Amino acid sequence: xxxLFLQRARRRRALQQQQQPQQQQQGPQRQRRRQERIFRPxxxxxxxxERDIIQRYRLxxxxxxxxxxxxxxxxxxxxxxxxxxxxxxxxxxVLHLLASGSFQTTGALVGGISxxxxxxxxxxxxxxxxxxxxxxxxxxNTVQKQQETKQGFYAISGFPxxxxxxxxxxVRLVPPAASEHLYRNRKHTHSINVQAIVDx
Length: 200
Prior knowledge:
With about 200 residues, the chain is mostly helical. Helices cover about 50% and strands about 10% of the residues. About 10% of the residues are buried.
């Protein structure tokens, strides 16, 4: 048994010695460096106070859970692996981006994910949220809904027959270079005029 082991070891050494001169003739080969993957802790709502949740995401815990329930099926991964980004993490990263007006890198860091991953799922999450607008953003179009809205405003302010409160605001932005003049406002800054109607 030992003789067989020694013979194999000698053959291996002989093969290695034969291969070394060939490698030296070919020149130094580039060695690939394998980068270790870094897994950051993923963001969840557990352990956050309600005040911190509202400050970070501009929504309370209940609203985020309801939004998550509504879009979860659209964003559910087809294959679940240990590296799969949970739907909650995707939603929280996008909500932080929308609430802060920051960059994708910041949203990714807060979510505990990489910026390329964030960039990949951002359109999907936004499309899922936008898909909910007809269900949740609509003018009262039935007599019953109009009556409820009127009663709600009357309870708040004492004004009868109010269906909505309207206001306008300027949202600052960096304009496209080709049409920069279209976004200049009366204060000589760049913005877009947003008009919004809210219910009670």
